[in-house]
Amino acid sequence: MKMKSLSAVLLGTLLMSAESHGNVTFIKNNTLSNAQVKEAALYFNGAVNNQTVTWLLSALAEIHENYLNVENVDIYLNSRGGDMDAAYVAYEALRKSPMKLSMINSAMTASSATMIYCASHERYAMPLSQFVLHPAAATNEKADYLRPDQAKRILDEDENYNSMFLKIYTSCVRLSDKEQNDITWSESGRLVLKADEASKRGLVTKGNKESRSYLLTYYVTDSQG
């Protein structure tokens, strides 16, 4: 029985190939041609920043170019957020994607990562996943003292980012006027949603979805290990 299990593992290894480019890894079933791949998966695990968004968009561009018959890409998102500008770049690019994209909250989708999640109308969540909606935070490069004009510039920048948040939030989740104000004003007003509550509010549009195997899978991470 043990020998049989080992043979199955070895056979599976031979039939699948893995390649890595930077922090992007993809695995493909070697027994099939590119034209036979109808669906793909992309796992995004890490912070949202210029580099990870570039890897995300590059992976999708590669799928679109090399696998012409792919009808849908499932994007499994696990991120506590990060850079607002990078998230907005991803949001605009993904919502105009020539391929159908399905977003799945695989564990935690928070802060600017919710912008990426909202880029598709096909939105799923794993049963125990969570969402966090909260205000943007502007960075203070001057850690010691602030002059009035510097303080105003920080507040203006923060207000602009929160306006961006609010526009995208209200396009994909039902929020009361009070909630809209609270989550873009104070960290104490943050909204934490479990998957079932997110479904009731329209953030999750397609219900629960479990992870499964795919003929083609990409992995994007910010890990340096």
UniProtKB/TrEMBL annotation:
The keyword ATP-binding does not apply. It comes from the Bacteria. Residues 1-22 form the signal peptide. GO terms for biological process: proteolysis. The keyword Protease applies. Keywords: Hydrolase, Protease, Signal. One of its GO terms (molecular function) is ATP-dependent peptidase activity. Belongs to the peptidase S14 family. This is ATP-dependent Clp protease protease subunit.
